[in-house]
TrEMBL record:
The chain crosses the membrane at residues 12-35, 47-67, 79-98, 104-126, 138-159, 171-193, 214-237, 249-267, 279-300, 306-331, 343-364, 370-391. It is a multi-pass membrane protein. It comes from Streptomyces sirii. The keyword Translocase does not apply. Keywords: Cell membrane, Membrane, Transmembrane, Transmembrane helix, Transport. Residues 12-394 form the Major facilitator superfamily (MFS) profile domain. This is MFS transporter. It is found in: Cell membrane. Its main location: membrane.
Amino acid sequence: MITDRADGKRALGYPAAAGVFAVGMAGTTLPTPLYGLYREQLGFSELMVTVVFAVYALGVITVLLLAGNVSDETGRRPVLLCALGLSAASALCFLFEGGLPLLLVGRVLSGFAAGLFSGAATAAVLELAKPGQEAHAGFAATAANMGGLGCGPLLSGLLAQYTPWPLALPFLVHLVLVAMAAAVTWFLPETVAHPHRPRTLRPQGLRVPPEVRGVFGPSAVAAFAGFALLGLFTAVAPAFVSQTLDEHNLAVTGLVVFTVFLASTAGQLLTGRIGVRRALPVGCLVLVVGLLLVATSLAVTALPVLVVGAVCGGIGQGLAFRAGLTAVGGAAPPEHRGGTISAFFLVAYLGISLPVVGVGALTLELGLRGAGLTFSACVIVLAVAVGLYVWRRPLTDAD
């Protein structure tokens, strides 16, 4: 189903596709440092912040269930262009925000965009690699995902803190970046050999090809645990930084969130050096250490410890995430690769949404600190369990 890409149309290769991927994912986390401003302006609770965040994840999951494999049939480029259009629509919702309903619509549209990007952009980056570039392309795909997610809060935090129009300028800048990404996407080679319009749009669920099932389970559970940590930082950490640590600089908030995603990218880079077999269990172990540090920062109210926990947890998440994605993507047959990768991301985004809403609900009874400690304990148990499993039954580098 995938072309051999030997038609000389590879002037724009996998780095260009990775750049488009990064721009798209940056838009999904752009509002993160701004939630405090929205909370003051609209007067909603911390629970509602996590609900607004989780609505995004609900949009991702919906698309992955309904259309996670659509790029395997229609082609990568049309799906990427559609995702960029949804990203632009989301930015416009935030630009013209007049209350909570439009915020929710903007987050849902952003989730739809991320759901399309997750499978189609990852597959496009992998398939645009020339022979011998597969490892570099695998890193580019996961780094674009995590790097884009990290750059969103950093960009909006800096713009909101040091320029006029804190609730408008970040989204105006993103619209410009989306337009540039759309122009690049238009000239990307199509990697699906015979793209066609699917007859029906049906839920794909979590079905994966038989040859992938051996690696899918532990890889997806590790991704769930790692994305739960990312969800904590993108939805709850900004409130902890401002309310508990009394740090109200939005650029600092964005930098703290950026740190965990930057560390994730570093962890992904390390995965290529130590191999899939060791990266998954080691990543789970490092993730546990990071969660322990995050819990410590909550207990002693220390920003430096939170930053160190973000670095350590991000590295662990990156190690486990790239190892799992590499194993799943490598085991999937080309004609089902987009759908299989989408199923992997579906489990990951369950991790970034369900636990975070739980944290928001717990804040009503336990407060922000108590909810964070409870969350950390639960994810530590999960990460330890999957880490021990893959340590005893390791994946192979060839998976």
